[in-house]
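User: Can you predict the 3D structure for this chain?
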Amino acid sequence: MKNNNSHYLSLMLKILLFVDVLIFFGSFTLASIESFEQFLQFDFISKGVIFTITLQLSCLGLGLYKSKLREKFGGIAQRLILAIIISFVLLNILQIFIQSPLYHGQILFNACLFSLILSASFRLILIAFNVLGLARSNVLVLGVGQRALIIEKRMRREIDRKGFNLLGFVSMPGDTEVFINEDNLIKLDTSIIEYVLNNHIHEIVVATDERRENLPVDELFACKIRGVLVSDILDFIERETGQIAVNLIYPSWVIYSEGFTSNNDLRNSLDWLFNACLSLILLVITWPFMLMAYFAIKIENGLFSPAFFWQERVGLNGRIFNMVKFRSMQEDSEPNGAECTSISDPRVTKVGHYLRKYRIDELPQIYNVLAGDMGFVGPRPERPEFVEKFRKIIPYYNERHNVKAGITGWAQLKYPYGADDKDAQEKLKFDLYYIKHRSFMLDLLILIQTAEVVLFGKGR
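Assistant: Here is the predicted structure, written as structure tokens:
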């Protein structure tokens, strides 16, 4: 059986390798050439060849020429930066070892810098316009039942499929009923392995409702050894949407996965120091706004009215603490007990409306961060009454207390403001994703996006 997929990938990689040769040699030329006569000299050409080969070997070692590399631009840029740094160090070591100054320091630095800029720009163009197929993988879904329907419903828009092309859904014995739109169904007239190879499939997503004794294990194995990625629907949704589908979770997935506990020891060890430094920086920047908010509340509500609002919330490991905010609602706004707030809540004061819109009401929580009850980034802390309720009706809800609560979080960026049980479950999907993947880089990304929300008034 002819593997057209392999031939296609081979051609794609040859083109990428050839362009990188031109970029690396051209960068060296740009950084060091003084005249056309110099370019024709054997010494100049040999130095350029050594430079180019070193960079390409580094890129090869870091997986930049892997046929199945399906990284987003951020991941590719990180690999490329590391490859350039390694090459720079290796070429300097080579000069010391052979006791010959092959490259002037500034020339070598400039050549590496030009290579990084041009190669990163080239790959950005490939991803942006899906040239050579680098940006998007072709995906085939096994299943047409309830589980498969989640992919069709949640990823029906083009923006939801930025990282892949969904070729269609294949009916499997484990599906009791067909829920997928007929236009998206694929009726195979060949074996799965033949269809996969003939249609350049990069990934198979297993989304059958009942997989025991219903999966084509031999064919999936044959696809796997040919370099096709075989994914569970939970892992696929997690990767593509930035959330964990709690309604699909089954015990074995939790047991065999990394679970919902952070294994980043460095991040855990420096957690309080990282958050305390950010708190002090934020305090220095925002204290004038906090002072104006304090006086605005006093002017609207009266000189003797409280400007701060303290409320019990559930934090790390279920411990209850008192969270502080600027008061944005009228006093005694809950005569009948705990109530969820809504988007156009009539209890919100005029000043409170602007405090909430620009998240100024959250700034006093700097105190909670310094006290160690909260972090800057994490799941938003809920009230004990709501936690007790959600734990009973939402699976895995208590797992969000495996990390400190945060002033801002992944769920706040990815999901609109909501106040009912369904909204709580949807937010949990993003909270669990954050807990599983949290790192300094993810925290930084969330903080940057939160700043955009605040500056442009996109808050609630």
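The chain has three domains: 4-133, 137-241, 266-332+341-455. The chain has a mean pLDDT of 83.
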